[in-house]
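Protocol step 4 of 6: structure prediction from sequence.
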Amino acid sequence: MIEVMTRPVRWAIRRGYQPAAGDPPPTECVVVRPGASGSRSGLPVSAVAGELGVGFGGGFALVLPTYVARAPLSSHRETVGELLAQLADLPPTVAARPRVLVVGMQWRDDQHDEAIERLERLGEITASGGGPTFVGIAMPQAGKSRMLNAAFELATGLGLTGVAWVDDDVTFSTGCIGRLLEDFLERGARGSAGASKVPRPNPYAAARLLHRGKHITKTPKFGYPHGCCMVVDAELVARGIPDRYTCEDDYFCFALLDPRHENPLHRTHIVADAACYHLTGGPAGEIRHRVNRSLLTAAVLMSDFPAEVAGRYWRMYFYGLWPLAPAARGHGLRFAAKKWLLKSIHFVWFCHVALGLAARGIVGRPRREIPWSAYTRHTKPAASPLPVSPTISRGEPA
């Protein structure tokens, strides 16, 4: 009954977002082998596997998507140094496998030469013996998902078991990447796994308010891997991310969600003892744009995927908004009331966004893109000894 009632709305929302089709952006790669005295530049992604040859089967790639204007070279060098330190501190089961460090450097306008030079500089600090193979990918700025797809193409050609990626504004706990990959292997290298995301608010009143609200609205048992630090398996890598979706972690959640299982997220996993720290929020206007983008993404995914998947996600997304979703239980009536109020605001905002897409679909004027909404402030938080709740990884039934 619910499917029949929502089918026309979902159809209209699908029509209300129709991004322009296009070929993948061109790529130019910089390849540095461990211990090499120089690099090979100018290769397209499709030629990298042939350049590197065999010997990578069963290995991992760690991808850092970023762009030239995001930070100066010194900051990019620092971030790559942090990743190399993580890759030097791996459990034996992970360290025994081949490793590829991929830096995706997107560029705009006249930044092409700077992008290539920056990748060559970053490759130099990975060239010491025993380190990972380095591949830098330069691409005209076209979004994180497009860059990840280029890295996925590379990984598929090399026969890698999985691909992990991290944001350029997070700080990792000691051994975070190693623990993430170790857990992924222990679970059969299937589906996805993600580090525990530990947010800290930026120094804005709106950011602090958002942080407090999220503390109430989040439901740890429905947490799924976040794009700031996660890994996916070879099957997902080979499929890539359809151009229609700009938010990779939400897409993989939908792709892996099992609506008929008692724990619909059993194909995903949060690793409680692998933590990444990040700053959230900004000025009120930036938060509004960011939330709007998130709601657009959720509406599109719920309209595209099968009704039973969308319905299961709806119950997780609006958990606490009884009677439209299950009531929040276990934390007392006062907490449940706060959650219901905040989820009500969330629901009204979502309806405004989703029905706006539906109206566009009905009149034939679809939205062509969901623009990225980055916060202006770009800093990394310090790691914290605060514990991560063990409820994140218990796999509680929904």
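Step 5 (inspection) to follow. The CA atoms of residues 206 and 284 lie 5 Å apart.
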